[in-house]
Input
Amino acid sequence: MRKPCCDHNKEEMQRGAWSKQEDQKLIDYITKHGEGCWRNLPKAAGLLRCGKSCRLRWINYLSPNLKRGNFSEDEDDLIIKLHALLGNRWSLIAGRLPGRTDNEVKNYWNSHLRRKLIKMGIDPNNHRISHYLHIKRLEFLPKNSTRENDGVISDTASSCADGQQITSSLPDLNSLP
DNA sequence: AACCGGTACAACCGCTTGTTA
DNA sequence: CTAACAAGCGGTTGTACCGGT
Output
C-alpha cells in the first residue's frame, strides 16, 4: 500500500476554498522559484496545503498563462471535434486550446457542451446521432445521400444538427490548429 | 421573503504513469 | 527487474449563485 501523497490527518492542513493570502503566497513563491517539486512547495512557501492542492490551484486558477472568460464558438467546435477523436482525454484536448486548462475544458464540457450536443440529438459519449433522431433522419433523408458512417459525427457539430454535411471521415488531428 | 431545483465551477480523491535508485 | 515516489489525470463532489414558483 502506498503512502498518501500528503498527510490529510494533520489537523492543521488547510482544505477547501483558497484565501487571497494563500493565493498570494503561492504566486510569490512560484514567481520567485518557478514551478516544480510540488511536494515540498507548501512548506517552502509557508502554506498549510498539500502539494497536489497547490499544483491544482496554480494550474487552474493562478497561472498567468490562463485565458479566462467565455469559450468562443471556435473553441466549442474544436473541443467537440477533439472529444470525438480523443474521448475524455481532457489534458490532451486542453493542450490544443491555448490558455485553457484540463479542468476548465472538462467542466465546460460537462456543463455546456454535453447539453448542447444532446439538444442537437447527438450522443455526447460517442458523438453518434441519438437513436430516435437517427431513425427519424434515416426516414427523412434520400437513400443515396452522402451522410454518416455508422452515425459517427465527425465534422462541425452545428452542421450535423441541421442534418447537413454529415461526413464519414474523422478530421485529421494534425490539420487542427 | 422563503424555498427549491438547476447550473457553473473550484477543489478533492483515487488511480495511473513516469522516473529514479 | 522492481519498489518507491512525485506528478499528472480524470471522475466526482461541494457549494455559491441564480431564476422560477
About this structure: Residues 15-18, 50, 52-53, 56-57, 60-61, 103-104, 107-108, 110-112 of chain A lie near DNA strand B (CB under 10 Å from a C1'). Residues 1-5, 138-170 of chain A have pLDDT under 50 and may be disordered.
